[in-house]
Write a structure and sequence with these properties.
Chain B: One of its GO terms (biological process) is secondary metabolic process. Chain B: Pfam families: Amidohydro_2. Chain B: InterPro entries: ACMSD, Amidohydro-rel, Metal_Hydrolase. The complex is a heterodimer of chains A (about 250) and B (about 270). By secondary structure, chain A is an alpha/beta fold. Chain A contains 12 helices and 8 strands. Chain B has a single domain, classed as Metal-dependent hydrolases (TIM Barrel). Helices cover about 40% and strands about 15% of the residues of chain B. In chain B, helix 9 runs parallel beside helix 10. Chain B starts with a helix and ends in a 6-residue tail after the last helix. The mean pLDDT of chain B is about 95. The chains are: A alpha/beta (about 250), B alpha/beta (about 270). The interface between A and B is medium-sized, with 31 and 36 residues.
């Protein structure tokens, strides 16, 4: 069967310490996803993490502009400093085709909890804006993630780059307790039977497709999903429908 | 683009491109939940069939992590699915008397074992340590594959320790499991210096770049396919290899030809 893929996990730009053949620009990323028969992608710019979230967010807007296949993901910082989150923040998101937010708490040196983000995350819940979290880049501990979900149990959260070693013992309690908690596939697919077991236990609705490009190989996640031991209907949900649904429910 | 990608995408497996997984495990494990951890011959066969895995060469977790269980579990498992499984005889250098016994009995279990497996980092004794010597000498004599867990920067199974054993045992077929992970350049150097040293892809293709470097600088004839199954998924790894820009010839070498050469004379057919 031919699946329609919507990739939730890509980034553009060249990391300061180098990486194998990155997508330097939005145009490069479009070229890559087209070559992989991926229809659309959510992306962010490595500047947001490594250099300056403020500069990175602006650069991202420039890079995805003019590319209907690309949607943006901005990085947030605590609202108190006013660096990123301003009064017209959500309006700007809408104007600039920003559909998701990400956050790198330990690297950007703040605590991701109700003290720092209470009203803002409450509003994200209200607006059903997805927060993309990564277990990569040493910026989030499982303890912090558990604490965040406990404080904001309705938060729409997509956990990306879940880890090379199987992490079902960490993720399944979160899937069990929090209905808007999702897993991204670029490393879930790496685990033998991990995707199938998660679908069987929690349903395909809780998984969204991601490649992890440019760190990982898109064809890896594509082939694994195509031949996962689940129904075709579930594959379609994971490949694109679940993410489409999340974004359709978003109120910007 | 190689034509094998379209074929794997169409059917999930390709008849004229069987896959040999030369780095696998078996059984449950304390630190990770494996959905397919418990060995069941029928389920294992079904999982192997899905991706066209012709042969899985493994060392059971329990053989590596419990001297009280040891290699008996490898023998038991292979004999339940002999048409698709072979094992490495697992070695724990903290118990040299068991190594001597297992090496002494290797011929008795030629229907099961095709070589040795060393997990030196976990056992905290370098692969070049004398406690491993009986196995190295035997592997050198019989030209057997020896699968090492290797990792960049390791003092037990890093590039320097591999160099020691590659020099000392030139006839042993040294498979660098994980290919000195992260120190790809040193893995390349070892392969260039020693014709008996091979790169193995488990954990290499978790990120892009390492495989491409091996292909560019050494060539596909020295690259072995392995996944750490049931840690990692076969289709994921096949897709990753086929996304590296390699040719069909290179893919055939990696997926089966190199393993077939290594196993020649060690298994029937």
């Amino acid at each position: 069967m031919k699946l329609d893929f919507f990739d939730v996990n890509t980034f553009i730009g060249r990391p300061m310490n180098g990486i194998f053949k990155p997508a330097k620009t939005g145009t490069d990323l479009v070229s890559e996803i087209r070559s992989q028969n991926i229809s659309k992608a959510i992306t962010w710019h490595i500047l947001q993490y490594e250099c300056s979230p403020e500069k990175g967010n602006r650069t991202l807007v420039e890079e995805i502009s003019g590319h209907p296949e690309l949607y943006g993901c901005w990085t947030i910082l605590p609202p108190q400093t006013g660096e990123i989150i301003t009064k017209d923040f959500f309006r700007k998101m809408k104007e600039n085709k920003i559909v998701a937010l990400n956050v790198f708490p330990e690297w950007h040196r703040f605590i991701l909890n109700r003290i720092s983000f209470g009203e803002f995350l409450d509003e994200l819940i209200e607006r059903k804006i997805p927060l993309l979290l990564t277990m990569d880049r040493a910026c989030l501990s499982w303890e912090l993630l558990y604490g965040l979900m406990k404080e904001f149990p309705e938060l729409t959260c997509i956990l990306c780059d879940i880890g090379i070693w199987g992490v079902d013992r960490f993720t399944w309690p979160l899937l069990e307790k929090f209905p808007n908690f999702y897993l991204e596939t670029s490393l879930l697919s790496l685990e033998e039977g991990g995707l199938e077991a998660t679908v069987k236990r929690f349903g395909a609705e809780r998984i969204v497709f991601g490649t992890g490009f440019p760190v990982r190989y898109p064809k890896a996640a594509i082939l694994q999903l195509a031949y996962a031991d689940i129904s075709d209907e579930d594959k379609e949900k994971i490949a694109s429908e679940n993410l489409e649904k999340i974004l359709q429910e978003e109120k910007l | 683009m190689n034509s094998l990608w379209e074929k794997f995408l169409e059917k999930g497996s390709v008849e004229d491109c069987p896959v040999y997984d030369m780095h696998a495990h078996m059984g449950t494990y304390n630190r990770i939940y494996f959905p397919y951890g418990n060995f069941d011959p029928e389920i294992t066969k079904k999982r192997l069939d899905r991706a066209g895995i012709k042969l899985l060469v493994f060392c059971h977790h329990w053989a590596l992590f419990s001297p009280d269980i040891g290699n008996s579990i490898n023998i038991e498992v292979v004999r339940k699915l002999p048409e698709r499984l072979r094992a490495y005889c697992g070695l724990n250098p903290n118990y040299p008397e068991i190594i001597e016994k297992d090496v002494g009995e290797f011929e008795k279990y030629r229907d099961v074992f095709v070589g040795f497996k060393m997990l030196a980092e976990y056992h905290q004794i370098p692969v070049s340590h004398e406690n491993y010597a009986p196995a190295w000498k035997y592997a050198n004599l019989k030209k057997l594959p020896v699968l090492l867990h290797t990792w960049g920067g390791s003092q037990c199974n890093g590039p320097e320790q591999i160099r020691d054993v590659a020099e000392k045992y030139p006839e042993a077929r040294i498979l660098m499991g994980h290919s000195c992970h992260g120190e790809w350049g040193k893995a390349v150097r070892l392969m260039k210096d020693f014709p008996n040293v091979y790169a193995e892809l488990c954990a290499v293709v978790d990120s892009r770049g390492g495989l491409e470097q091996f292909l560019d600088e050494v060539g596909s004839k020295r690259i072995i396919f392995g996944t750490d199954w049931p840690w990692f998924n076969h289709h994921y790894y096949i897709g990753a290899v086929l996304d590296s820009g390699l040719s069909d010839e290179d893919a055939h070498n990696i997926f089966h030809r190199n393993a077939e050469n290594l196993l020649k004379g060690l298994i029937a057919n």
